[in-house]
Amino acid sequence: MTETVLVTGGAGYIGSHTALALLEAGHRVVVIDNLINSRPGALAEVEDLTGHPIVFVEGDATDEKLVEHTIRENAVTAVIHMAALKAVGESVEKPLDYYGNNLESAIATLAAMRTCDVWKFVFSSSATVYGDPESNPIPETAAIGAASPYGRTKEMIEMIIEDVAASDDRWQITSLRYFNPIGAHESGRIAESPIGKPNNLMPMVMDVAAGRREKVLVYGNDWPTIDGTGVRDYIHVMDLVEGHVAALEQMTDGSGYQVFNLGQGRGTSVLELIAAVEEATGFAINYEIVGRRAGDIAECVADPRLANEQLGWKTRRTTADACRDSWNSQ
Ligand SMILES: NC(=O)c1ccc[n+]([C@@H]2O[C@H](COP(=O)([O-])OP(=O)(O)OC[C@H]3O[C@@H](n4cnc5c(N)ncnc54)[C@H](O)[C@@H]3O)[C@@H](O)[C@H]2O)c1
Questions:
Q1: Cβ(14) to ligand 1 under 6 A?
Q2: In the chain, what are the domains?
Q3: Who has the most CB within 10 Å: 127, 140, 171, 320?
Q4: Rounded to an integer, what distance in angstroms lies between the CA atom of residue 67 and that of residue 71?
Q5: Confidence band of 254 (pLDDT split at 50, 70, 90)
Q6: CB of 184 within 8 A of CB of 237?
Q7: Over the stretch 5-16, which tens digit does the pLDDT of each residue have?
């Protein structure tokens, strides 16, 4: 079935790639974004790459009336809710901004959907809800307990949407817990380009490779991991967004509330990622080992089997592919 999908936060890194995957799968795309961490240019590139238009509304997803109007005007049939502030460190300094923006935008979007009789909702959750996991790989049934205000916004929204789903059988709601998205579309024309200083490892490594930054700071080499640096499950952004299309397309009447991990199921340390970028770019990446960051954890790797089995989805691209595509997008 062809859907008209509202992607809140759709001008951002994952949102613009999601728009592309949705259009390529034959769906229509409407975006609401307040451009707090993005530029609309990425969506123009997506229109150009796919040959399909995107309806772009510059505005705030906390504005229930705006969301309602956008849904009605465009006959939206499903929503992927990505609008959020996402920097873990900043969330410790500005918790009210994070709780305000992330919770209010989710609640306003859900309320507008209910008013407009639209019931398919996919939520951008995060592996940060697992906090410091007891063991790896992490299944969806593992205990949750986020360690930062940002992570707690995701945990709280998951609780809210579970209650919302239970309140009315018409809801079809899926939380996707992303591990660490990296990479870019193979065209290199849309990229991860946050406003201001990047917070995630890959954009920092790319900044060093491109000569915009002197070195990568590696936070700790005394973790109980293969080489002492933190281990994460890096997933190519195109694999990640294909998971959204799969999640949307498998929703059926009565599917209720579902939760899936989206990850490769394979861990890579910081030093291994740096080596993979050196290989992909041919440049030596200067780095410095500094102390651990408060709230960091040793390892976080997905068990993606539930999504593999129930969504018929699996990752097709490697970490090396993601390094090449990130570099290509620079
Ligand atoms: N990138 C990651 O590592 C990662 C990991 C797990 C989960 N996520 C989640 O995925 C989603 C997308 O992340 P991203 O990496 O693309 O980040 P991003 O910052 O590139 O995209 C988020 C977009 O939301 C917009 N936005 C924020 N608040 C808004 C509001 N109130 N109304 C309208 N637009 C708003 C921003 O301008 C931005 O374009 C977020 O919900 C994020 O928390 C990201």
A1: yes
A2: 4-181+236-263+304-316 (3.40.50.720)
A3: 127
A4: 6
A5: confident
A6: yes
A7: 999 999 999 999
Report the alpha-carbon distance of residue 168 to residue 230 in Å, rounded. 42
Ligand 1 centroid to residue 226 C-alpha, Å: 31
Q: What's the mean pLDDT in 228-236?
A: 98
The tokens for 96 are: 């009210």
Residue type, 108: A
User: Does 62 contact ligand 1 (Cβ within 6 A)?
Assistant: yes
Average pLDDT, stretch 70-88? 97
Q: How far apart are CA 8 and CA 72, in angstroms?
A: 15
Q: State the closest ligand 1 atom to the C-alpha of 195, by its place in the atom list counted from 1.
A: 19
> How many A from CA of 282 to the centre of ligand 1?
31
Helices (H), 102-187: 104-116, 149-167
Residues 61/83, Cβ–Cβ less than 8 Å: yes
User: Would the CB of 83 count as within 6 Å of ligand 1?
Assistant: yes
In the numeric block, the tokens 């930062």 are attached to 148
Give pLDDT, residue 270.
Answer: 98
- Ligand 1 centroid to residue 159 C-alpha, Å: 19
Q: For this structure, is 150 an active site residue?
A: yes
- State pLDDT tens for residues 233-249: 999 999 999 999 999 99
With beta carbons less than 8 A apart as the criterion, state whether 148 and 200 touch.
no
**pLDDT at 207 exceeding the cut of 80:** yes
181 lines ligand 1 (CB under 6 A): yes
- Read off the pLDDT band of 294 (50, 70, 90): confident
Global pTM? 0.97
- The yes-or-no verdict on residue 198 having pLDDT over 80 is no
The residue whose CB lies within 8 Å of the most ligand 1 atoms, and thus the one to mutate among 6, 17, 31, 37, is 37
16 Cα–ligand 1 center, Å: 10
